[in-house]
Structure formats: C-alpha cells, structure tokens
Amino acid sequence: RKEVEQDPGPFNVPEGATVAFNCTYSNSASQSFFWYRQDCRKEPKLLMSVYSSGNEDGRFTAQLNRASQYISLLIRDSKLSDSATYLCVVEFGSNFGNEKLTFGTGTRLTIIP
Amino acid sequence: DVKVTQSSRYLVKRTGEKVFLECVQDMDHENMFWYRQDPGLGLRLIYFSYDVKMKEKGDIPEGYSVSREKKERFSLILESASTNQTSMYLCASSLTGQFYGYTFGSGTRLTVV
Predict the structure, then answer these.
(1) Could you please report the per-residue DSSP string of B9-59?
(2) pLDDT band at residue B12, thresholds of 50, 70 and 90?
(3) Which of A49, A84, B12, B48 would be B33's cystine partner, CB 3.0–4.6 Å?
C-alpha cells in the first residue's frame, strides 16, 4: 500500500463548479497534514494545512478524518486559475520535532471555461 | 518570505560526470531536503539534513550523496550521473518547532545524456 494515496484524476471541471479531492494515508501516527498546489513546471507551494476540526480558506475547505485516515479538499466556485496539480502531503516520522513529509503523486485539475 | 534558491534551472550533463546541485536558503532554517520528481511517481525523498554536517538517507539515496557544511547550504551530488537520474530535483527547507510545511526552491531540471 502506498503511504499517501490520492484520486488518480485528471479532473476536468467547468468553471464555477465544486470539485473534491480525496486522499488516504497509511501511518496512523501522522500528526501534520497539508495540501500543496503545483503549477506546470513550477515548484509545489503550500495551499493550506489540514486540521482535525476542518478548516476553510476562502473557497477552499480541508477536512481530516483520523479514524479513516482520510483527507479531503473541496474547492467551491472553481476559477480558471485553480487549474493545477494538487498534492496531498502527510508527515511521516518525526524526529526531535523535525517533521519529514511524504507526498502523494498528485491530482491534476483543469478548469474548463 | 523564505527564499530557497537552487543554483541552476536547467542542466545537461553527460553519463559518468560528477554533478553538483546547490541549494541555499536565507531564513536560518535547520532542516533541508532534496527530492526528485518524476511523472507518475511524485516527489521522492533522496536525502535530508536536520543540522550542519548532519545527513540522513531518504527513500532513494542510491547514486547520490549530500553535503551540508553551512546551515544555509545543502548540496546534492551525483557521483557518476546516469540516464535514469534525469529528473526534476527540488530542494526544500523547514523550521524546527514551528511546522508550517516546507518551502521549495524552483527546481533544477537535470538531463543526463
């Protein structure tokens, strides 16, 4: 089983629609969770952290279900500029407070005008 | 803003050459990481370092070594480049104790011919 597994995609979604990505992780001891965004030929950039209570940042909502070891990202009212690859990222193996992250392979999202 | 700078955006090297990829961060981060990113495989951790002169193997260290002589600089070395090391290489850094994910450099696309 992969340590971090994401929806394979690609997702092709009309502008204005709502889209959801899912991700599962294998290490029940993981403490930190993130969604990163990566544009074509660019480096990954932090989109948002994911907290146990769920968190929202504008049109983006992230949810964490520890019991099912499951993370989700919801994008409402999608914009053309949301087209990117979204990476699910989970902390594996902390060492003296230094987190080491494992990345999912990413889900490609294309917003269609 | 934290800046992580990778010395080259594109590199072309010959098989058997020794290759140095340099990464410098300017925000006094303790932790630095080298990943490679390949289509369908996502980001895979090569080596990481939590302190000066300290290094640990990641998931795919074979064929690579690293050097961290100064806190701000983390170098990745390909001892004898091979065609299967053609990839996008990404350096990242993070702060111990206040974990907000990683900040990535813009990447080095290495082609080995």
Answers:
(1) SEEEE-TT--EEE-EEESS--SEEEEEEEETTTEEEEEEEESSTT--EE-S
(2) very high
(3) B48
